[in-house]
Amino acid sequence: MSAAGDHGAAARWEHFPHDADIGVRGYGASPEEAFAQAALAMMAAILDPATVRIEQTIDIVLEAPRLDLLLVDWLNALIYEMAERRMVFGAFEVTIEDHHLKGRALGEAVSRARHAPAVEAKGATYTELACVEDWPGLWRAQCVIDV
Fold first, then answer.
1. In the chain, how many domains are there?
2. In a domain, 81, yes or no
3. What is the pLDDT of residue 4?
4. What is the CATH number of the domain that holds 21?
5. What is the mean pLDDT of residues 101-116?
6. Confidence band of 78 (pLDDT split at 50, 70, 90)
7. Which residues contact 104 (CB under 8 A, 6 or more apart)?
8. Whole-angstrom Cα distance, residue 132 to residue 71?
9. What does the DSSP 8-state code read for residue 53?
């Protein structure tokens, strides 16, 4: 079997254990997909992203010298937007070119009754930070979120 056949490039996310904080990991066929999935993993640590209505779009533009640093900046920008705008997000769009990220976070105003947030994300950290192509066409973006 080939590596691609074994692992595929299906976009997905997961959590991984890390002491009192929460590790988030996104996978995708490209860094962009992996970043979007990592953002979904972060949201899923807070609430069920399926409960979020897509009513507003927030544009985010970032630059960093490396992909892994761009991931931390991306997740921290989302945490900032959630706090500043009192919003939650259920979908993400990301494009990356020459270490410049243009992203969109799609969501709505938070409803404590409907969304029932489990934790508050305080910040993305450099702990367990990685943005790598594990196999051709399978990117992994991960870090630990301080909650």
1. 1
2. no
3. 40
4. 3.55.10.10
5. 95
6. very high
7. 57, 58, 59, 60, 92, 93, 94
8. 11
9. -
Q: What confidence tier does 2 reach under pLDDT thresholds 50, 70, 90?
A: very low
The boundaries of the domain holding residue 134 are 12-60+88-146
Q: Quick one: which H or E segment has residue 62? A: strand 56-63
**Could you give the C-alpha distances from 79 to 10, 50, 72, 75, 132, in angstroms and in order?**
26, 18, 11, 6, 23
Question: Contact, 23 vs 136, CB < 8 A?
Answer: no
What one-character DSSP code corresponds to residue 74?
H
Is residue 71 included in any domain, yes or no? Answer: no
Q: Please, what is the average pLDDT of the chain?
A: 92
Question: In this structure, are residues 89 and 43 in contact, taking their beta carbons and an 8 Å threshold?
Answer: yes
DSSP three-state, residue 29: coil
Please give the Cα distance from 18 to 95 (Å, whole number): 29
Q: What is the pLDDT of residue 14?
A: 87
In three-state form (DSSP H/G/I as H, E/B as E, the rest C), the secondary structure along 93-137 is EEEEECCEEEEEEEEEECCHHHHCCCCCCCEECCCCCEEEEEECC
